[in-house]
Amino acid sequence: MDYRNNADKYCGLATDGGLYNCVLSTELGDGTEPVTLQEAKDWAKIEQDADDDLIEELIIAAREICEGFTSIGFLSRMVTAVIDNANGSFRLPYGPVTDDPVGTDVDGNDLELNYRLGFVETLGRMTVTYTAGYDTLPKKLKTAIKQQFLFMYENRGESATGLSPMAEMLLAPVRMVL
């Protein structure tokens, strides 16, 4: 049976439970950027201060692109995810998860989550709150952010988009395919 024309079933949005696990929405708390303005400027060999605001925006964008590619949270923060765990064995987004997640069902009742080895085993639609990401980002991931920042800074206004080839090379071995 082909569910591509039935978005509710395909994405797991049906009220009776979908066919697949999916994240319905996420809210991310604040965290501290792992790459500072000065680190980015040193990496790019930028000595003037005129582009500081742009550089800070590009650092955030570069981190978000790297997080999106790897499905890993690069900074420690509180995450609230609404998920539909139709099949079990659901990996929470923006991991690594650094504390025990807390869950509520669709009616707001507390759930006893079966969480082990990085996966939620409890079935159904729920809201899960947890702390995830790195307190200290590994050097390889930090280098990827700086490389992505440099790619975006050097190619601003150009048609070059996406992940920098160097950042992709650094991130590919740790990429989590969900």
Would you kindly provide a brief summary of this structure?
This protein is an alpha+beta fold. The chain has helices at residues 7-11, 37-44, 52-70, 139-154, 165-171; strands at residues 22-28, 77-85, 90-91, 102-105, 110-111, 115-116, 119-120, 124-132.
Give structural notes.
The structure is a single chain. The protein is of the alpha+beta class. It has 2 domains: 1-30 and 77-132, no CATH class; 35-71 and 136-172, Hypothetical protein yqbg (Orthogonal Bundle). Helices cover 31% and strands 21% of the residues. It has 5 helices and 8 strands. The strands form 2 sheets. The protein has a 5-stranded antiparallel β-sheet, with no helix packed on it. It has a 3-stranded antiparallel β-sheet with strand order 3-7-6, with no helix packed on it. The longest helix is centred in the middle third of the chain and has 19 residues, at 52-70. The radius of gyration is 19 Å and the shape is elongated. The two termini are 23 Å apart. The model is unreliable at 1-10 (pLDDT under 50).
Topology diagram in text:
Blueprint lengths: L6 H5 L10 E7 L8 H8 L7 H19 L6 E9 L4 E2 L10 E4 L4 E2 L3 E2 L2 E2 L3 E9 L6 H16 L10 H7 L7
Antiparallel strand pairs: 1-2, 2-8, 3-7, 4-5, 4-8, 6-7
Helix pairs in contact: 2-4, 3-4, 4-5
